[in-house]
Amino acid sequence: MLERIRPALRRAPTALAALVLSGCVVYPAAVHRPAAVAPAGVIVPPGVVYVAPGYPAPGVGWIWSYHGRRGWGWHHRQRGWHRGWR
After folding, report:
1. Could you read off the pLDDT of 7-57 as tens digits, one per residue?
2. CA geometry: angle 52, 58, 61, nearest 5 deg
3. What 3-state class would DSSP assign to 80?
4. Closest listed residue to residue 38, CA positions, set 30, 47, 49, 28
5. How far out from the chain centre does Cα 56 lie?
6. Which burial class, exposed, middle or buried, applies to 81 when counting CB atoms under 10 A from its CB (0-12, 13-18, 19+)?
7. Which of 67, 39, 71, 69 is nearest to 80 (CA)?
8. Partners of 66 in the β-ladder
9. What global pTM score does this model have?
10. Residue 81's beta-bridge partner residues?
């Protein structure tokens, strides 16, 4: 009879550990980050991610807009792109 109980006694610590620790395993909660929303007046083309300006407008008449090759930057109707973008 002792021969029948020994295999069960060997598995008991493993079964006990699995039973005790089963409540500790949880799926991590999903992190939801809000999408960046462009302020009113800024036009964001489809498929482009809005990036906020890293510094204030260089002066009056400069508009934060998207350049097809270089990304986001300050643009003036008469002076062109700030910092030499063409």
Report:
1. 666 777 777 777 776 666 667 777 766 666 788 888 888 888 888 898 999
2. 95
3. strand
4. 49
5. 25
6. middle
7. 67
8. 72
9. 0.54
10. 75
Distance between CA atoms of residues 80 and 56, nearest Å: 17
**CB proximity list for 20: less than 8 A, separation 6 or greater:** none
Give the span between the Cα atoms of 31 and 47, in whole angstroms. 22
In the block, tokens 């089963």 appear at 22
Residues 6+ apart with CB under 8 A from 35: none
Separation CA 5–CA 50 (nearest Å):
68
Alpha-helix residue ranges (DSSP H) falling in the chain: 2-21
Whether residue 71 contacts residue 83, with contact meaning beta carbons closer than 8 Å, is answered with no
- The token pair at 2 is 């002792």
Residue 63: what are its φ and ψ, rounded to 5°?
A: -120, 135
- pLDDT of 60 higher than 90: yes
